[in-house]
Amino acid sequence: MIRDITIGQYYPAESPIHRLDARVKIVVTFLFIISLFVVNTFIGYVCVTAILGAVIKVSKVPLKFMLKGLKSIVIIILFTAVINLFLTQGEQVIWEFGFLHLTWEGIYMAVKMCVRLVLLIVGSSVLTLTTTPIQLTDGIEYILRPLKRIGVPAHEIAMMMTIALRFIPTLLDETDKIIKAQQARGADFDTGNLMQKAKSMIPILVPLFISAFRRAEELAMAMEARCYHGDEHRTRMNVMHMESRDYRAVVMTAVYLVFVVALRIAGNYLPFMI
User: Fold this and answer.
1) Residue 183 falls within a domain, yes or no?
2) Domain match, 51 and 10 both
3) What pTM value is reported for the model?
4) 123 with 32: CB under 8 angstroms?
5) Of 172, 185, 183, nearest to 211 (Cα)?
6) Which ranges does the record mark as transmembrane (predicted)?
């Protein structure tokens, strides 16, 4: 399960998506997430899924590798489904017990929310899997640069976000090693009630926190040894600039947004679109 988490990982490949400007990919991902809340019909979600599938195909990232990251959020998906199933108000009641009631409207909402959550995670993974941490840092900093006029530390925010993403795989690998070391010493993490399982996590969390603080201290010392002082007088080896493929991606995103809005409007007037 630990190795199934793909958040923060980069998948090297030669594809048009990998070659896009990081700023374009960040903005497109943000607009894609917004579009998931604009679509309100299953036909719309089918269309969005097909478009996302085409993007994944072009990115040359294996679909199996990308879907593997969904295993880590199964509990969140199930929790979302249960909440919407039994707490959504509706007229067509199927089953009722106390304050819990199952309605057709609840089933509809649960399926829609789960699909939306899966598309959100997979769509966001395309960004991190096709963009290196350095490109991601520079892209976020460029986007936040106008906010520096009002005192927002754009460079520091971008650096913190990228370091956090970069160290997720490292901490997951460290967690996996600690679990295997504890199991080799006879630790049991699978049996017992909920309280016993929670207590069994202490031998994992304590060394994990110690390791995380040690890595943070080593990183801080390495940055100080290299005279790192944030954005002050900092130059870049690779200056970001837009190319023709980036402008084509912007145009295609604009067409996609118009298409999504059209689906939303059509869904309000055509009942067969569900």
Assistant:
1) yes
2) yes
3) 0.76
4) yes
5) 172
6) 26-56, 68-87, 107-129, 247-266
Alpha-helical runs (H) found in 60-201: 63-67, 74-87, 104-129, 133-144, 154-184, 194-200
Give residues with Cβ within 8 angstroms of 183, minimum separation 6: 189
**Position 25: which residue type?**
K
Q: Which letter does DSSP use for residue 185 in this model?
A: T
- The whole domain housing 265 covers 1-131+242-274
| C-alpha distances out from residue 127 to 24, 27, 116, 273, Å | 10, 10, 17, 30
The CA distances from residue 28 to 87, 182, 193, in Å, are: 34, 43, 45
Q: CA torsion 19→66→12→23, rounded to 10°? A: 30
The answer on 165 and 117 residing in a single domain is no
Q: Alpha-carbon distance 62 to 47, whole Å?
A: 21
- What is the total count of domains within the chain? 2
**How would you write the pLDDT of the chain (274 residues) with one tens digit per residue?**
445 556 667 888 889 999 999 999 999 999 999 999 888 888 888 899 999 999 999 999 888 877 776 776 778 888 888 887 777 776 777 777 766 777 777 788 888 888 888 898 888 888 888 988 778 878 888 888 888 888 878 778 877 877 877 777 778 788 888 888 888 887 777 776 767 777 777 888 888 888 888 888 888 898 888 877 766 666 666 677 888 999 999 999 999 999 999 888 887 766 545 6
Does one domain contain both 2 and 76? Answer: yes
Residue 144, domain member (yes or no): no
- Distance (Å, whole) CA 272 – CA 124: 30
Looking at the structure, do residues 231 and 265 belong to the same domain, yes or no?
no
Distance CA 266, CA 264 (A): 5
* Claim to verify: residue 230 and residue 109 sit in the same structural domain: no
My answer on whether 57 and 37 are in the same domain is: yes
Residue 140 lies in a domain: no
